[in-house]
């Protein structure tokens, strides 16, 4: 897909709802080649509800890093049974995981940014590459206001890292809009949000945030804000063409 077409889609869908965007994508690219990334966040729960209601066989994947909160696994089961689908689960390679944990220890992420990124690379990025190789389009719950690293994301983007189309239907939504949608549809959400968590990832790298703090300040809280990505979302520019 070329830059001009992506720009056209971004203009065309600027005022459209996430449901309209997702239905367009499912219709144009097909349900078997369009996949939703879910970490069970509130944003991903909104998109899961839309996917499940608008596709007979939704493809929704979860990367099981092995370090998630029990609450996340509980929500996964609840969501799966509520909407009647099974998550596609991807896990780190045994060999790579055994090697890094043997070499650097089970808490390597606290040692340095490099070791934290190495852990994310093995537990998240490598499984992500495998799942994305099975699709042409991936859909994510990223929002512009989440962090400085996401302030320029578009509804439609070319993901250079994976050479495929990436869709962010909630790019312009606020956190309040997400909660309104969750409440209006009675969508299940991670109970940790009731304990001041506002962005939830792996248990050792996530903590609750205080009032007034940035949404993602509870993720890798020991690092600078501009380094707080795990490598899953690395390219937000459209393809030249
Ligand atoms: Fe490892 Fe933490 Fe990254 Fe999870 S978030 S993969 S535990 S460094």
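^ Assign residues to that structure.
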């Amino acid at each position: 897909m070329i830059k001009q077409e992506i720009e056209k889609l971004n203009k065309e869908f600027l005022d459209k709802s996430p449901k309209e965007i997702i239905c367009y994508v499912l219709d144009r690219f097909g349900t078997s080649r369009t996949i939703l990334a879910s970490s069970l966040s509130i944003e991903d729960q909104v998109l899961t509800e839309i996917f499940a209601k608008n596709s007979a066989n939704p493809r929704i994947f979860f990367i099981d890093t092995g370090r998630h909160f029990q609450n996340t696994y509980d929500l996964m089961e609840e969501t799966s049974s509520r909407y009647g689908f099974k998550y596609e689960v991807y896990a780190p390679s045994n060999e790579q995981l055994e090697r890094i944990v043997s070499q650097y220890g089970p808490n390597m992420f606290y040692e340095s940014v490099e070791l934290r990124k190495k852990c994310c690379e093995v537990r998240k990025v490598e499984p992500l590459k495998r799942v994305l190789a099975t699709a042409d389009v991936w859909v994510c719950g990223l929002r512009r206001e989440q962090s400085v690293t996401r302030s320029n994301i578009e509804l439609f983007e070319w993901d250079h890292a994976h050479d495929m189309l990436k869709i962010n239907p909630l790019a312009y939504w606020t956190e309040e809009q997400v909660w309104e949608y969750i409440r209006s549809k009675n969508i299940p959400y991670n109970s940790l949000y009731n304990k001041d968590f506002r962005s939830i990832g792996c248990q050792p790298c996530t903590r609750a945030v205080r009032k007034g703090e940035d949404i993602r300040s509870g993720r890798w809280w020991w690092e600078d804000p501009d380094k707080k990505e795990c490598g899953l979302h690395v390219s937000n520019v459209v393809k030249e063409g």
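Helices lie at 3-12, 18-29, 42-54, 70-83, 94-104, 113-132, 175-185.
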